[in-house]
Amino acid sequence: MPLKPILLGRERRRRTRPRLEGFKREILNAPNLITVGRIFMIPPILMLVDKTDPFKNFLAMALFLIAGALDLIDGWLARKQGLETFFGKFADPLADKILVMALLVYLAVEARVPGWLVVVLLGREFYISGLRTLAINEGVEIGAGAGGKAKTSFQVIGIACVLLYFPYRAPFGGWIDFLDVGLVLLYASAVLSVWSAYTYTADFVRALGQIRVTDESDVQPGDREGETDSKP
Fold this sequence. Notes:
Layout: H1 3-26, H2 30-40, H3 42-48, H4 54-81, H5 86-109, H6 115-137, H7 146-164, E1 167-169, E2 175-177, H8 178-218, H9 221-230
Antiparallel strand pairs: 1-2
């Protein structure tokens, strides 16, 4: 009789091993750990934002750019090692959005960025996230377009310049006011945000129309006649 509990315990351990191995492969791999690490870099960046200390602002900008570089590295590692998991596909863009949103809101609180600009940029992100969810439910894939990629580039460089904040002497003479440069880039990213949101919406509507046309063409004439005859 005492052997039965022991055997049951061994059976449970055998059953949990595949689950544990699946969890390790899905979550605990280098690309996903880098992705999670980028989220944990947000508090140090925010703590370094300071209107009185140029060195702290430089460190904040450097950490932000490092987080952006890690985004490229974790994607490259996932593709190279064959570790493109569901968690990674979900967490990687989420980490990007959390990083950008946290910085934009904090910079607005610090009066470095206009509040309306942050509303436009964040509103676009929420809208596109909702549109992508709707597209998935309808079986439509919305890929990243040229406008969205350009928006991201302007946004990242603009935030980096706003984080740097102070004017610095230019190598060719004169001064570069990085706050003004960053704001110009963020204004450009806002224009591209609105434009890319429009193009994504137009592509979604067009793809949805094509799916409906295909579904209607798949219906045989006999099926339609049967439906008509069955009506009272």
